[in-house]
Amino acid sequence: MSKNPLSTNSADRTASTTLSTEERRTIAPDLVLEGTMIWDRYKLPIVAAVTLVVLGLVGSEFYETNRAKAASAASALLDASKTPAEYQKVIDTYPGSEAAANAYLLLGRARYDAGDHPGAVQAWQTLASKYPQHPLLPTALIGVAGALEAQGKLDEARTMYQRAASAQPHSYVAPLARLAEAELLLAQRKTAEAKHIYEDLIATGRQDIAGLAGQSLKMLNSLPPVGSTPAAAPVAAAPAVVPPVAAVVAPAAAAPSPAA
After folding, report:
1. Are 112 and 131 in contact (CB under 8 A)?
2. d(Cα 135, Cα 173) in Å, to the nearest integer?
3. 7-16 per-position pLDDT tens digit
4. Burial of 155 (0-12, 13-18, 19+ CB in 10 A)
5. Backbone phi, then psi, for 4, in 5-degree steps?
6. Fewest CB atoms within 10 A around its CB: which of 89, 196, 227, 252?
7. For residue 42, what are the domain limits?
């Protein structure tokens, strides 16, 4: 009687190890084709594929680890920065990072405080251009508007206040940008347009903003019409509500992550 080629007898198993590849292909074609032959034919691609997967996993973990380390180092460097040169170093050392985005915001503030209004505009506009999803984008745009206003570029400043209000319309800063625009309009004696903004802000129902807008509107309504008397008092601007950036810039470390 012929032997079962798949017998579990130990002697048969021992003898089977001496069979040639051709004999094994004849005796157990399914096992050979699905096992040995497939491995013989495709072992190099299989090894290569497994190697790539392993390297990919290791590389991904290495990348995430390095990115976390870089973010921590960038944050520490930003925390220690106080001057425009130091903020610029953060930007140059860690380009594209969250710390670099926040450094642009603080660089603009430092330049503005030093009287470098064109430099402040450049820093804040760079932030707006490179990080259009940054959570403090409206703050940067208000800063740009304030710096333009300081240079006497009132029409450009108004456009920037409007952009700040519309960039993230549901943010805390958006109505502050509208208040700043109304104050700019008062400085230009465009009282009707300023009143319209105040009325809109009162209608929003936001208590703090509505209160400020209401006070300014009440003040405007109490003034005599411009030109009604030879010595008509000039229209007084409302108390400053939004000094450029100062009232709205959060510490860089507390700023949420951008969209870079």
Report:
1. no
2. 10
3. 444 444 444 4
4. exposed
5. -75, 120
6. 227
7. 17-68
